[in-house]
């Protein structure tokens, strides 16, 4: 090749397959005055497109950045495969994901049309899965029978996202809320979202809801704008409310009733920031302690880094959690753990 090249390479190949001979590339050094000098980032001048430019745009698909597993839930696929349900943040749309709980294989993904993420994922007794989206606060249901996502509507009561959900009488779903004066619910029989009455005048967050099927009462934790931590028992029919907040935990700067679950007569409450788990007897309206097996010490505060306990599938009065890296079984009848 002849021209303005600054290097050349010579190859000689014969039919007798002699070794290829090469010469070292010769380079011509550019004049000193034309060499590029290092430029500081701050001194760089950005390229400004002109109308003559013809950009090439390639659609790389949905951008997924974070997998939320705070409130994942478990269930079974139609063929009996144990699965986990969770949501991956995405832009422009979050993804609802179904994964094989044994192998970790992603089985299916569904876009959440109106949201870039989701906080709460809740498996209903119908096997349907309710999803509380944020970005745009929106409520969805994964229809288990038809294997599809259905859009229900914008979260009520001005809530920016839903928090811990529970299922009450007749399959009604109740949910905590954020940036809202009250919590809310959804009636799948009527396909209606609704706001519940306010529990206090200056609420900012309703962190969790729990339903007691024996007394048919709701338990709702509330955070006030002046950093008060409150716990209410609510009759969802008459809407009568009772403040049952333990006095030693009313200061929300020290503790929040953040995660709540009910096993037997014991409300299990946990605050992630301190990893402290406390236990409240809903029949006697008092905090209680548990004893470790073969110990005489009564523990009223238990440290666990496990966000959500898991019910014993054969006994609803027992639950599992993790303490110091070990799986531990709590018995709410004997008030012991092992």
Give an overview of the whole structure.
The N terminus is likely disordered. This protein is mainly β and 338 residues long. The chain has a domain of 77 residues. β25 and β26 form a beta hairpin. It starts with 62 loop residues before the first strand and ends with a strand. Strands 9, 10, 11, 12, 13, 14, 15 and 16 form an eight-stranded antiparallel sheet that branches. It has a six-stranded mixed sheet with strand order 22-21-27-26-25-24, with no helix packed on it. Strands 17, 18, 19, 20 and 23 form a five-stranded antiparallel sheet that branches. The radius of gyration is 30 Å and the shape is globular.
**Beta-strand residue percentage:** over 45%
Mean pLDDT: 85
Q: What is the general shape?
A: globular
Write down the Rg: 30 Å
Supply the number of helical segments: 0
The strand count comes to 27
Intertermini distance = 82 Å
* Structural class designation: mainly beta
Major β-sheet profile: 8 strands, antiparallel
Helix content: under 10%
What are the low-pLDDT stretches, counting only 5+ consecutive residues below 50? 1-16
The H-and-E topology, N to C, reads as: EEEEEEEEEEEEEEEEEEEEEEEEEEE
Q: What's this model, at a glance?
A:
The chain is mainly beta. It is 0% helix and 47% strand.
Topology, please?
Layout: E1 63-76, E2 82-91, E3 94-100, E4 106-112, E5 117-123, E6 129-134, E7 138-143, E8 148-154, E9 162-167, E10 173-178, E11 184-187, E12 192-195, E13 203-212, E14 217-224, E15 229-234, E16 241-243, E17 259-263, E18 266-271, E19 276-281, E20 286-288, E21 290-292, E22 298-299, E23 302-303, E24 310-312, E25 315-323, E26 326-331, E27 336-337
Parallel strand pairs: 21-27
Antiparallel strand pairs: 1-2, 2-3, 3-4, 5-6, 6-7, 7-8, 9-10, 10-11, 10-13, 11-12, 13-14, 14-15, 15-16, 17-18, 18-19, 19-20, 19-23, 21-22, 24-25, 25-26, 26-27
